[in-house]
Specification:
The protein has one domain. A hairpin with a 6-residue loop joins strand 1 and strand 2. It is α+β, with helices and mostly antiparallel strands. It comes from Staphylococcus pasteuri_A.
């Protein structure tokens, strides 16, 4: 169950399923003790596992 809706890859725009790994691109200085990662992750640049491998 997603509290804030589905997560989509910022590159291919495919929905990221609950059992998939995601990769979030964020600078450490921008982290300020977030505890609700589900809501926070919707606002970040995120990649599905396939896109993350292609962009390495």
């Amino acid at each position: 169950m997603r509290l804030f809706g589905e997560l989509k890859c910022s590159n291919c725009h495919r929905e990221i399923k609950d059992d998939e790994n995601i990769f979030i691109k964020v600078q450490a200085k921008d982290l300020h003790g977030y505890t609700n990662l589900d809501g926070w992750s919707n606002e970040q640049y995120k990649l599905c596992e396939t896109c993350a491998k292609q962009l390495k």
